[in-house]
Amino acid sequence: MLSVRDLTVSLGPETAPVDIVAGVSFELGKGEILGLVGESGCGKSMTSLAVMGLLPQPGPRIRAGRVLLEGCDVTQLQPWQRVVAGHGRMAMIFQEPMTSLNPVRRIGDQIAEAVRVHDRLSGPPAIDRARELLEQVRMPDPAMQLSAYPHQLSGGQRQRVMIAIALACRPQVLIADEPTTALDVTIQVQVLGLLRELCNRLDMAMLFITHDMGVIAQLADRVSVMYAGRIVETAGVEALFGRPRHHYTRGLMDCMPSRNSGARRLPTIAGQPPAPGTVGAGCVFASRCAAVRETCRTAAPPRAEVSQGHDVLCAFPLDGGEPR
Amino acid sequence: MNGNAVLDVRDLKVSFSVRRAGRKYQVRAVDGVSLSLAEGEVLGIVGESGCGKTTVGRSIVGLVRPDSGTISFKGTDMTGASLRDMRLNIRMVFQDPYASLNPRRTIGDSVAEAGDINGFFTSRAGRSAAIAATLTAVGLDPSFAARYPYELSGGQRQRAGIARTILPSPSIVIADEPVSALDVSVQAQVLNLMMDLREQLRLSMLFISHDLGVIGQISNRVAVMYMGRIVEQAATRTVLDDPRHPYTRSLVAAIPKPDPSKRILGAIETGEPPSLFKRPRGCAYAPRCPIASDRCQVDVPELRSAGTDGRAIACHNV
C-alpha cells in the first residue's frame, strides 16, 4: 500500500546538508497499523510530513529516497498534484485539533470542504456526506453537531471532527501524528479504539506516530523505533515488547514508570540524544549505550534481520550474544 | 484532624467567575476537598484536565484565593497569614520549565531569588556557595549558575526549577505536573531526583499529575479527583491494584500499558465529563457511570471511609 524507501530529509545548504531523517524505510500493508515511536526531535514528525508532501517551505527537503503509494512515486508531488493525479487517498491528523480547525467556521462546512475537493459534491449532498462522516467517527448527535463551532466541542470531539475530515478522501493510508497526546487518558482510549475500528472496517492502513510506548503496545501491529533520524529497530508488536533487541528500545521500556511499579529507582538512559549534524561515523546511540564497544564509535552499525520480520540497526544486538 | 500532619486542608472550595456570551457564571473548580499530608509523605493527586487538581495546589501556596475552607500548616491556620513566611515553607514546582524560569536572568539568580528577597545571604561568597551547593544537589554542575535558561535542555531546566524550590529548605513541596513536559528517559531521571531529595531533605510532597504511572512511582497515598471532588483516596498500591470507585476503575483501565496482550481491538465508548457550567445535580460521574442508580442523579455522595486500609470512597453503590 505505502512503501517508503531510504527517505532522507535534510536541512541547510546543498553543499553541507544536515540530515534530520537519514535513510528511513518502511512498508505499510492494507488494514495494518505501524507505530513509529521515539522521543522529541528524533525525526518522527519530519518523516510523516515528508511522506504526506507537507514539509514546510522553505525549510527541510527530501534529499534522497522514494515514497510509493500503491507503486506510484509521489515523492515530488505537492498534495494538490497528488489529488489531480489520482493519488490523493492519503490523509493526516495532528496532535492539536484546535490549531488545525478554523475557529470561525461551522464544523459541517469544514468537513464539507474536504468532501467538495474529493467527491466533487456541493450543497446539501456535501452536507449529507459530512453528517455520514460524523456518524462514522461515532460523534454523538451528528446532525446537531454540523452547525457547532470548534470551541463548542470538547478536545475528544474535535479530534473526531479531524478524523471525519481525514476520512473524506476515503484514505488508503492515514497518518496520525500524536493524535491523542493532548487528550485525557479516558478520552484517549476512546479515540484509539475508534482508529482501530476504522482501520479494520475500512481496510485502511495507518502510520501512528507517538512518544508513548504504552499507546504503541496497545494499538500497533508492527512497531518502528526511531532515534536521531534513523529507524533503529522494527518488529511485530509482540516481538518488540517481548524481546527488544536494540539497546535503545530496551532502555526506553525500562524507564517507563508503569513497568517498574514499586521499584525504588527508575532505570534511566544516561545523557541526551545527539544534536542533528553532530553525528559522527559510528552508531548514533554509541554515546549513551551501556554495551558500547570500540567498533561502535568508528563504524556505522549494520542493519540485520535477527528473526523473521524483526530487524535491528546494531552491531551487537541484545540477547543475540555474540558479535556477528 | 490528623495529629502529625504538616499540612491539613479542610473543606476547600474555590470558584472562578467566567464570562460566556455576555453572562457571568460562577464555576466551582474545587468543591469541598479535604486532605492531609504527614511528615515525609508524598500524596499524589490524580485526575483529568479541569478536575481541580491544579487549583488545589495553587490555593495551598496562596496563588488562588479560596471561597471557604481552612489550610493549616503544622497546626496553625494559614488563611490570612503572611505569604512571605508561608512561601519559604511551602514551595511549588511548576509543569513547564520553559515558562517558569525568567529568560533574562541567569540560572543562579533565579535559584537564589528567594534567598535574596528574604536576606539569607550575608556575603557574595556565601550566596555563590549556596547556589553551587543547591545546583549540585539537583545534579547540575555549579557552572550552570552563570547560564541562561535558553542554554539548557528541558530536563536541565526542570532541575533548575527544583533547585529554586529547595534553596530555602522548605518543609512542603507542591509539584504540579513536574515531569509531564519531559521525554520518558528524562522523566525517569527527574523522578529519581525528586525521590532522592525527598529522602535527603525529609520533604513532604503533594504531587499533582494526570499520569497514574508517574503517581504510582513516587506517591505513598493517592487522591483521585473528578469535577472538583475527591472520589477515592487510599494507599497507592490499593488504588492501582484494586480501584473501587467506578471512575477510578475506568481511569486505571485507560492507562496505556506497554503490554501487547492488552490490545485495543475496537471502539470503546465511555463518554466525556460534563461541562463545568452544567454540573449534574447528583453525583458528577453519574452520566458516565455504569452502576449509577436513581439516587446518584439527585444526591451527591460524600467521601466516607471504606474498609480498614484507610481507603475512602465517594460513591453510593460500592
From TrEMBL, chain A:
It is a peripheral membrane protein. Residues 2-253 form the ABC transporter domain. Keywords: ATP-binding, Cell membrane, Membrane, Nucleotide-binding, Transport. One of its GO terms (biological process) is transmembrane transport. Signal peptide: none annotated. It is found in: Cell inner membrane. GO terms for molecular function: ATP binding; ATP hydrolysis activity. GO terms for cellular component: plasma membrane. PANTHER family: DIPEPTIDE TRANSPORT ATP-BINDING PROTEIN DPPD (PTHR43297:SF2), OLIGOPEPTIDE TRANSPORT ATP-BINDING PROTEIN APPD (PTHR43297). Involved in beta-(1-->2)glucan export. Transmembrane domains (TMD) form a pore in the inner membrane and the ATP-binding domain (NBD) is responsible for energy generation. Belongs to the ABC transporter superfamily. This is ABC transporter ATP-binding protein. It comes from Bradyrhizobium niftali. The lineage of its organism: Bacteria, Pseudomonadati, Pseudomonadota, Alphaproteobacteria, Hyphomicrobiales.
From TrEMBL, chain B:
It is a peripheral membrane protein. SUPFAM superfamilies: P-loop containing nucleoside triphosphate hydrolases (SSF52540). GO terms for molecular function: ATP binding; ATP hydrolysis activity. Keywords: ATP-binding, Nucleotide-binding, Transport. The keyword ATP-binding applies. Signal peptide: none annotated. Residues 9-252 form the ABC transporter domain. One of its GO terms (biological process) is peptide transport. It comes from the Bacteria. Gene3D superfamilies: P-loop containing nucleotide triphosphate hydrolases (3.40.50.300). GO terms for cellular component: plasma membrane. The keyword Phosphoprotein does not apply. It is found in: Cell inner membrane. Its main location: membrane. PANTHER family: D,D-DIPEPTIDE TRANSPORT ATP-BINDING PROTEIN DDPF-RELATED (PTHR43776:SF7), TRANSPORT ATP-BINDING PROTEIN (PTHR43776). Involved in beta-(1-->2)glucan export. Transmembrane domains (TMD) form a pore in the inner membrane and the ATP-binding domain (NBD) is responsible for energy generation. Belongs to the ABC transporter superfamily. This is ABC transporter ATP-binding protein.
